[in-house]
Amino acid sequence: MRTLLLPLSLALAVSSAGFAGRAHAATVVYFSDAAAFEAAVGPAVVEDFSDTSLVDGLALLDGNVMRIANGKLLDTAVANRRTTLDVSGFAGSVRAFGFDYDLAPGGVGPGLAVTVNFVDGTSMILQSAGPSPSAGFYGFRTDQAIASVSLSLAGSGADSFLLDDLRIAAASGAPEPAAWALLIAGFGLAGSMLRGRRFNHAPSV
């Protein structure tokens, strides 16, 4: 048993070191169809803006003229301002986010730049929402926990927009693909060390 414990401990140490030190770019999958998004991510919390009270865990930050009216979130994207949808208050690990958007209230502008801010403090600029199509669904899921999503002007000028039916989905507890790779590598190393010890202790003839 002692022979097994040492390589196993080493395997776990290698895997743990990889978890602590890895800095890989997040994997992002995009959706332009709400049904496909819902099928892929499973149950989601939905904020429909039917009133000014928000679902628990969601906060609206920054913004320009941001307000909730007629069952929609309305704001106007201008230079150096952003609308931030903060989901860091959710109890679970949020890894999927989507919304219905309409860029036409004030005439179609350059569209919205979308930035996802992760719990670990890193950020990633995603595909823009619009300007074509000027209305539709925008969603994504990722393998890293999301703290917030920021919307800003994708070009020059200004762009008024409406958002509706924010969809926020928590991740399952399954390890990330990179975590599985590290675990497999660690246990492979443990197996190699075990085989080497058996050969070294083979009786001589």
List the helices and strands and how they pair.
Blueprint: H1 2-21, E1 28-31, H2 34-41, E2 45-47, E3 59-62, E4 67-69, E5 72-78, E6 82-86, E7 94-102, E8 112-118, E9 123-125, E10 135-142, E11 146-153, E12 158-170, H3 177-200
Antiparallel strand pairs: 1-10, 2-12, 3-6, 4-5, 5-12, 6-11, 7-10, 7-12, 8-9, 8-11
Helix pairs in contact: 1-3
Annotation keywords:
disordered N terminus; 7-stranded antiparallel beta sheet; globular; 3 helices; 5-stranded antiparallel beta sheet; Jelly Rolls; alpha+beta
Cα gyration radius (Å): 23 Å
Mass-distribution shape: globular
- By CATH, the architecture is named Sandwich
Mean pLDDT: 80
Q: Considering the protein shown, what is the CATH homologous superfamily? A: Galactose-binding lectin
**From N to C, what is the helix and strand string?**
HEHEEEEEEEEEEEH
Number of helices: 3
- Alpha carbon gap, first and last residue: 26 Å
- Biggest beta sheet attributes: 7 strands, antiparallel
> What's the domain count?
1
Poorly predicted ranges:
1-22, 172-180
CATH class value: Mainly Beta
Oligomer: single chain
State the helical fraction.
25-40%
Give structural notes.
The chain has 205 residues and is an alpha+beta fold. The protein has one domain: Jelly Rolls. Helix content is 25%, strand content 36%. The chain is built from 3 helices and 12 strands, in the order αβαβββββββββββα. The strands form 2 sheets. Strands 1, 2, 4, 5, 7, 10 and 12 form a 7-stranded antiparallel β-sheet that branches. It has a 5-stranded antiparallel β-sheet with strand order 3-6-11-8-9, with no helix packed on it. Strand 8 and strand 9 form a beta hairpin.
